[in-house]
Every structure is written in C-alpha cells, then in structure tokens.
Amino acid sequence: MAAISALMVGFCLTLPALARPLERELPPKQAACWERDYDAAHLKAHPGQRVASIRLVHLPDAVPPEPGGSYVQFYINLRQRNAATGYDYQLGGFCRPNGKGLRCRPEWEAGSWRIDAGPGGTLDVRSDGIVANPNPYDAEEIADKAVKIPSKPDDMLWRLAPAKGSCELQ
Description:
This protein is mainly β and 170 residues long. It contains 2 helices and 9 strands; from the N terminus they run H-E-H-E-E-E-E-E-E-E-E. It has an 8-stranded antiparallel barrel. It is globular and about 40 Å long. The N and C termini lie far apart (58 Å).
C-alpha cells in the first residue's frame, strides 16, 4: 500500500512538467500578443536584418489549435515598407510542443520557427527561414509579392516583449 501511495504522489508531482510548453505566455483559452519594433541603432548594428517590426498574435478563439498545440499569426514589416499603416506581411502556423518550447509550421511550405521563453519575461522566436505574405488569402508559396526572410545572418532570433496594443488579427 505504501508503494502505491508513493507512486501516486510521484505521479502527481510530475503533472506540472507535463503541461503544454509556454502555457503562461500563450494561454490555451486567452489571447496573447508579443511584439518588437527594432530601433535605428539596432538595425544599423545588424545590417543583414530584414525585419524592422514584428508582432506575434495568439487568439485561440479565432483559430482553434490542434489538441495540445497553439496557432500563432505573425505580422511583419521589413526595412522597405510597402503600406502606409499597419503591417505589410503576415504568416500563420500551428505550433506543437517540442522540448520546453514550441515548433511551428504553416499548413503549406513557408518555412518554420521555434518559440521559447526568453530572459526577463520575453519570448524568443528562432526562425528557420520563412516566407511572409502580403495577401492573407493566398498560400505563401503562390502569393504575388511573397517575400523570403532567411534566418541568416540577422533574422535568426527575434526577442519579443508583451504587446502594448490590442490583441487582434489584422
């Protein structure tokens, strides 16, 4: 009987470790947004970086995720802006647990990325090279004016902070 009790206590203690990675940062039933606007000094120090502004939106009610996973949408501005307001490009994908983070892929061939908890309450997005789309209704690989954003040299890691504005799909 003591052995069964010890096993049950051990199992209960492991339950938090089985939780979905980044559940606090990307809650399964709550909106969460993360963003970064790179200032001129950062962009000057990283001349190969194409992304000037990025926003990650997680709205579980808008796009139901797969069981145990998440759906996130990126909005991106490059150094060469196209639109006068808002974001020029976007890319969404489904994320699945992978170690302590999430591995994310769109439904089509448009690259992949990993999301991990960063230092000081930030979120780290590690790009493996993505294709972003100016038109939300076309798949990236066939969209007119879709843009490839390689992970190297300076677009390999985007460190995002909680967004200050409203959390919504655009």
